[in-house]
Design brief:
The protein is mostly helical. It has three helices and no strands. It is elongated.
């Protein structure tokens, strides 16, 4: 379970870096499109995270591991959204 936690933390770090870099680029070049950027990134993050969870659940050997992994990912997603909203305002 430790490799999954490390990989999910890396996954969320990459998503966060992509969001910050994209936000800065949109803010610099086209600030009137920040709302669209935020909505698109929120959708992309949600779909990527849902895809990762579904794939892990489908290919997991043990149901307990799959449930634990899904719970960790969902908690990390909620925390990431809270941080994103806090930083955005």
């Amino acid at each position: 379970m430790i490799p999954e936690v490390v990989l999910s933390a890396l996954f969320f770090t990459l998503l966060g870096v992509a969001y910050v870099k994209g936000y800065d680029a949109v803010k610099r070049h086209s600030p009137e499109h920040l709302v669209h950027f935020y909505l698109i990134m929120a959708t992309v993050r949600m779909l990527l995270i849902a895809t990762v969870v579904v794939l892990y659940v489908l290919f997991a050997k043990h149901r307990e591991d799959a449930v634990a992994f899904a719970a960790i990912i969902i908690i990390m997603y909620v925390v990431m959204m809270m941080v994103t909203l806090k930083l955005r305002h």
